[in-house]
Amino acid sequence: MDLSSISPVTLIVSLMAASTPILLAALGELIVEKSGVLNLGVEGMMIIGAVCGFIAAVTTGSPWLGFLFGAICGAAVSMIFAVLTQYLMANQVATGLGLTMFGLGLASLLGHSYTGINPPLFSQIHIPVLSDLPVVGRIVFGHDPMIYFSLALTFAIWYFLTRTRGGLVLRAVGESHDAAHALGYKVIRIRMLAIAFGGACAGLGGAYLSLVRVPQWAEGMTAGAGWIALAIVVFASWKPGRAIIGAYLFGGVTVLQLNLQAAGLAISPAYLSMTPYLATIIVLVIMASDKKRQSLNAPASLGKTFFAST
Amino acid sequence: MLRLEARPEPSRAMVLLTPIIAVVATMIAGGILFAILGNNPFTAIRIIFWDPLFNDMVASYTRPQLLVKATPLILMAIGLSFGFRANVWNIGAEGQFIMGAVVGGGTALALYPLESALVFPLIIIMGGLGGFLWAMIPAILKIRFNANEILVSLMLVYVAAQFLAAMVTGPMKSPVGMGFPVSRNFNEYQSAFNAELLSNTGLHFGVLVMMGVVIVGYIFLTRHIFGFQIRVSGQSARASKFAGVNPHTTVALCLGISGALAGLAGLFEVTGPAGKLSTNFPLGYGFTAIIVAFLGRLHPVGILLAGLLMALTYIGGELAQFQMSIPAAAIQVFQGMLLFFLLGVDILVNFRLRWASTKEAR
Amino acid sequence: MNLIKTLLAGAAVATGLAGAAFAEEKLKVGFIYIGPPGDMGWTYEHDQGRKAIVEALGDKVETTYVENVPESADSERVMTQMALSGHKLIFATSFNYMDHVMNVAKKFPDVKFEHATGFKRADNVSTYSARFYEGRAVIGHIAGHMTKTNTIGYIASYPIPEVIRGINSAYLAAKAVNPEVKFKVVWAYTWFDPGKEADAANALIEQGADVIMQHTDSTAPMSEMKKHEGIIGFGQASDMGQFAPNPRVSSIIDNWAPYYVERTQAMLDGTWESTDTWHGIKEGMVEIGEMTEAIPAEVRASAQELADKLASGEVHAFTGPINKQDGSAWLAEGETADDGTLAGMSFYVEGIEAEIPN
Fold it and tell me: Where are its TM segments located (chain B) (predicted)?
């Protein structure tokens, strides 16, 4: 085995691209869960975003419109979940799983005639001088705009949750919907907005997958990314900054195991493929055993149904 | 304006009526979908809901097949329903299903070619144990470290799937399989084969166990102290403390039971209908079972019916695919719709719709 | 028990007669697919074969298919439903359908089954597969000439004989024209996962591979290659022509159409017999996709010559002297591999510096 053939710089660059879809989806779900709603349909919303973004980009020739349309469609399909759980008080776990099933099927139907087509190119930005710097140039200045957007979004969500009144209201609703309702906040309306935001982020993550990362449309192409996004939210104990760590760690282990194989490491690929999931469990346990912090961050009303009886 | 008003108690009539409303609504919405895709909606609906039960060409075969397809779903859903009632969220039944098949099936492969009447009972125990132990991981991490069981059990699904891949490409690979990552076929091993009990009916031992579990589950839930305990735990932590229920015991019991049942489902599936271990063995039954559990309103009898309905849409969907060239994706969308409608109309059980003036609604 | 059997048989007879009266004795041919026809790879080519039957035989046949059929009891049920509803010829197009094909075939002796890539046969079950390794030899030849870093990356699915055979065949052909060549193999443990396949291609490129071969079914590795300068690859299963002329410089195409038409015709003629078919470039079951301008003209010519010789039988992809990876002798000078060894191949040839996972 020749480990020196693995370059840390290229590893970091490729892990950032590999992690961005799950980071975007996880950020959306983080807001949803902070509002006290558990939407297990991330996978379904992602794949709808992937197919709709792809169709829009191919039709219009603009990847930017593709991202926009992917986000809109992700939000649109999340409204099924929102209406069922918020107005009709359906169970969130079952509805979320149903959304995944529905989304996967609908995406295949929509994308039927879009297989085997190349989408318009979405190129990396290249800043003269800066992007050509050794090491730093590629890691800091050598990405496509969506990666910078995902980082900016992380910061914006952190700012929103901790520094704005809107964030305070959102957290209050997630903490105790009855108390928030008594204070005069429109619990259901806030949650509808949060769910739509989550759907848009998942759709954006899906569109990144089909427009940049793969870039192709193929049935079932999300291949479980939505579930990973869900894991990362809890892993991050509902903090946006930690979501980045979680997503990059997961993407990093995935990319690293393929690199180790290419370098000739003779361990069964099956065992190597387990490592991202085992790593997630271990970090989860370490974080969770710090009971005080965990309980401070977990939204107390998560997954509970709200009905305004008065 | 329409508004919801809580019923003083759940409506019995609606408990029975809502599933019918949902199925009819799905037929209408699904019919529109099929019409858009260029198929005759009436034929499509007939093929999906009617033909698997009553078509004289295929029904004699498909009727028992409904039970076969539904068995793993129902077994797992009943196990899960206890946990869901007690707010213990095992999302990883799929992983426990796989581990039941690997541990139980692996035991059988290790014993091959020993023929004995004890082999089958032994592998059933090992299958249940495999699922049970796999579910104990999230249980212990939850009890000891307060780690979220939704996530741990979900992550373990992927670990189990990779473990299965490692097994069938390594120690459990069939010596007569030409190097393919597939285990020995269990129908070559009489003592371990979960055979059809009546030929051409598809009925196997797992179907009987499933029926037994429905009955026992019903008794547990309605007549036994355990049913009371989990319902109390589900209501609030304080209430359960007053009732003298140890929350740790509840977590361990709920995850343990659902894990063991999922393990059994995996074992019966691998030694019978599936016939062998392979990387393609996991089909997402563990996730579908969660849906079945909720469709059945977390009640054993409801779950039995929900599992059969789910199986009907799968089998009818296959018929519709090759008789009408309806794409598999359309069937999946159709199943999603059915689920949404069933979940949506459920509200009528506990609430009634009332016309109210805008002022009153405020 | 017997009653049920009688009922079943009775139903089959009754519907068979009714069906015949209505359908003017159209031959019903069913297909079960492991993936969707839109995968642009494995299932796509089988579906092309199905369409070829319709085109060639028109009104005499009616074809149906079910997509995304898991290799489980579900496949057995689908095939049984097909048999019960009057299908007389059923193509099962994935390896793990094997035991389920055998089970259904036992129950319906009058229905003929064609199972792709399997090895179990019966009076009414034929098997067929393609000598993909011949195509691998041709692209290996091109790869050996084209690599500048002398490093060829290989995205493999599962360590099964077909995949190992392909790696060996490509390696031997590459080595023959470029003794310095090295293979790096990544096992994806999946047939279809675009994200993972793209990652695997990326990892190989990062480690110096400038020619990528894939034995997984999505086009994601192609897209990944396209992002890098000077990386080439080959279409797998289907032509993947949308990536020509670069990075896709050629391809191995599974062409099932001639075989499917021939077997269906045999059913119509009443001459169908159980057979074991393993066809290669000669019979057209394996096709080499158009070689693009990215390949120098002389390499295109020599690759075509190799393909022609493989077709004529003048050259065998595995011709001695070849040692196994551990150095033990396998084929002596001039000796060619027998089909039995090839069918169950589970070792690398000498020179490959990787290990087969187990």
Answer: 12-37, 66-84, 96-114, 120-141, 150-168, 203-221, 242-265, 277-296, 303-322, 328-349
